[in-house]
Amino acid sequence: MTMTLDAGFFDNLSRLRLAIGHKASMNLTGNRKSTQKGSSTEFSDFREYMPGDDIRRIDWNAYGRLDRLYVKEYMEEKEAVVSILIDTSASMEYGLHRKSGYACMLAAAFAYMGINNMDRVMLYDMRKMRQPFAAGGGKRALPKLVDWLSQRTFDGKVDVGDAVRQLPMKGPGLTMIISDFLQESFVDAAKEQETVRKLLRFLAYRRQRTALLHVLAGEELSAGLSGELAGTRNLIDMEEQSTLRLTLDAASIRLYEQAVQDFLSELRRECAREGAFYAVCSTETDIYQLIFQELRKLYDI
User: Any residues with CB less than 8 A from the CB of 87 and at least 6 apart, and which?
Assistant: First the structure.
């Protein structure tokens, strides 16, 4: 996988922050407001003074009115966890503009947003879930992040649901899944709804804001993009290494494109129903346009 993002791209990302959707509860200092009380400058609440409290937090105005000692509490800033899962199955190698490269560019962009805002960013190769890459250290982590992504290989199969169940989620955060979702349990119309619903409800139960970034090649979304398809063609399953020979005409191409739209619509409906973010990311879309315009709902700022 070759990275084609320049320094200017990452500079523009510096003004964006991922919307987590939950208050953080980790034990490391960061830029998110925690459910714990601490020493930041954002006021949270009052409580009665207890022996051992910092006397500098006593509210003397309240004492003058109520004749009782109260201290001010503040929200403590904590580190949020951003988990980014990358589908590294063989099907991601498809396309004139490879889905694999596009997925890695998306992962790089969102990981950078996280580390730039002092979130704890964990990247996962879905075929090697027990070997995550922890991106920490602010902007200095970018070279190592890009290097890790450039070493990804795309081969074999992945099970998205199984990968998600292996995530070590210990608190609220954002889980981002970057995939073409071309596995039987998603593509099969009879199974898709249940598969997606179980996945999203599991993540909601684990207090995750979920984002599904559906990466597809332009040729997959519109058969017409790959030129004149009418005639006999060999279709190759990149994961099974099997070949199917069939004859395509204009009517069968229309049926294919309708099936694709039905597939996307069901994913979109389930995500909307369960409160998850969903976006189709075509490899024909300029990465700048996608990040800075079409995915704006993912950001706080």
Answer: 103, 126, 158, 160, 177, 178, 179, 180, 181, 215
The region, left, alpha or beta by phi > 0 then psi within -120 to 50, assigned to residue 52 is left
7-23+79-298 CATH pick, 3.30.1050, 3.30.1490, 2.40.50, 3.40.50: 3.40.50
| 3-state secondary structure at position 78 | strand
C-beta separation of 155 from 161 below 8 A: no
How many Å from the N-terminal Cα to the C-terminal Cα in the chain?
Answer: 30
SS3 79: coil
CATH 3.40.50 in the chain: give the residue spans. 7-23+79-298
Over the chain (301 residues), what is each successive 10-residue block's mean pLDDT?
Answer: 70 84 42 47 62 76 80 61 96 94 96 88 96 83 91 95 91 94 93 96 94 95 60 57 64 84 96 96 94 90 61
Residues 6+ apart with CB under 8 A from 212: 177, 179, 181, 267, 271, 276, 277, 278, 279
* Packing angle, helices 142-150 and 99-116, rounded to 10: 160
| Alpha helices, DSSP H, located in 136-249 | 142-150, 160-165, 184-187, 189-205, 218-221
Burial of 202 from C-beta contacts in 10 A (0-12 / 13-18 / 19+)? middle
Scan for tokens 């320049």, then name that residue: 6
* 198/11 Cα distance (integer angstroms): 38
